[in-house]
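Backbone geometry:

***
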Amino acid sequence: MRKSTPWSLNARITALCLPVVVLLTVLAALAAITASRNNSQIDTLLHKVANLRTDSQQLEVAMLNQETGIRGYAIDGTEASLAPYRDGVISEQQLIADLRLQAAGKPQIIGDIDAVQAAADEWHTNVAMPVIDAVQRGDQAGALGLINTSARDRFDNVRATTSTLLNDIIDIRNTVAVDVTGTGKLIVWSLVGSAIVVIVAGFVLAWLLQRMVTRPVASLASSVRRVAAGDYNAPVDISGPPEVAALGRDVDDMRRRIVADLRLVQSASNAVEHANAQLERQAADLQRSNQDLEQFAYVASHDLQEPLRKVASFCQLLQRRYAGQLDERADQYISFAVDGAHRMQRLINDLLAFSRIGRVTTAFTDVDLNTVMAAAVATNDDGLRRADGQVTYADLPTVTGEEALLQALFANLISNSVKFRDPERPVRVQISAVRDGDDWEIVCRDNGIGIQPEYADKVFVIFQRLHAKDAYPGTGIGLAVAKRIVEYHGGRIWIDTDITEGAAIRVALPAAARPVSPGTTPDPVEGATTPPATPEAARPQPTASPIEPSALDAGVE
C-alpha cells in the first residue's frame, strides 16, 4: 500500500485560507448588495417619498386657497378676492404634474392622484366656475346661493381624496423605513459575521503555525545550538511539515559534513603538529649548526690571517732580499707564492664581509640615495680618475635601509663598471630611478664590455668569474655581495638582457620599508631566513671591516 505524503505547510495554510477567503467574499458580496439596496431605500425615503408627501400637503393647501378665494369672490366680487383661487389653480396643476412624475411605478399613488384630480375637477365644474360666472354677470345673490351644502360636500370630497393620497404616501414611507432598518441590520450582521470569520481563522492559523512551525523550528534551533556549542555528534531533530523537515535534514547533512571535515582537520592538525615538531628540532639543529659554522668561520678566518700574513711577509722578504741571486725559475716561484698569499687574504676578507651582511647591522632609516651615490662615487674616485670616468645621476629617491650597506651596493656597481670598461673609450656610468608600483627601480648603466645574456644569472654567484684572474683583478664576489645587500633590503637585482651595448644592472627597492629583521640573513630560498649569529662578544673579531667597499671588489666580466 502506497504511503500517503504529508501535507506541506503551504498546502495546509492554503487549505485554511481558501475557505476563509471564499466565505469572506460571499459575506462581502452580500454586504455590498445589501448596502446598495439600503442606499436605494434611503434615497426613496429621503427624496421620493418625502417629496410626494410635501407635494400632497401643498396640494391640499392649494385646494384650500382655491375654496377660500371662491368664497371671498362670491361675497365681495373683487379680483383681489379671486387671486388665491387663480394662484391655487396654477399650483394645483404643477403639483399634480410633479406628483405623477414622482409616483411612477406606484400604482396606488397614481390612483389616489387620479381620484384627487377627479374630485377637484368636479368641484371646479360644479362650484367654482358657476360662482365666477354668476359674479361676472352681476348676480351676487346667485353666486352666494351656489355656496351651499352641496358645494361643501364636493370640497369635502376633494379634501378626503387628498387625505387618502397623503395617508397612502405615509404608508409607503413607513414600509420603506422598515426595509431600511432591515437592510441596515443585515449589513451589521454581515460585518459581524466577517469579523467572526476573521477572528476564528486567525486563531486557527495561529494554532497551526504554533504546532506546525514554531515548535518544529524551536526544536531544530535547539539542535543547532547544541551543535554550535561543540556537540557535533548530537543528532538534529527532523520533524514537522515537509519544509521544516527538509531544512532539518539539510542542517543534519551539514553537521555530518562538518564532523567529517573536523576529522580531516584534526588529522591534518596532528600531521602539522608532528611536522612543526620536526621543523622545530631541525631549526634548533640548524641554528646550532649555523652558530657552529659562524664560530668556525670567524675563528678560521682570524686564525688563517696570522699564518697567511707570515707566509706573505717572508715570501716578500725572500723576493726583496734574494731577487736576482737565485735563478729565474726561483724568482718566478717566489712571485707566485706572494701573489697567492695576497689573493688568499683578499678571499678570506671578502668571504668574511659577505657572511656578515645583515648580521652586524644598524637600525633602518630613511636614506637619501643622492647622498649615498655621492659617497659611492667618492669611494671609486681613484679608479674613475684613471679611467677618465664620469658618473651621472639626479633626482634619486629616498628609501628605507642601512646607509652603509646601500653605499657598498652602489660602490660595487660603479667599481664593476670601471673594472670592465671598454679600453677604447672613457667610462660613462648613468644612474636613474623610476617608480614601478610599490618599488623604486634603479638602473646602473655603463658603456663597458657588457654581459652576455647566457651569463645573466651566473654573475651573482659567489666567486663566479667569467674571465681569467690575469685579465681582470678581483675575487668574483662583488655582484654576489650586491645581491645579498639588495635581498636584505627586501628588493631584487638582475641584468637587463635587452641592452646590447654596455651593461645595465637593475635594482628594485621597496618604496615602503620591507626589510628583513635585523639580526637575520636571507636564505637562498626566497622568503626564508637563518637564525641570528653568535653575539659579537662571543666570537673572535676579524681584522677586516665587513662592509669596507674596497674589500668587496667586483669580479664579474
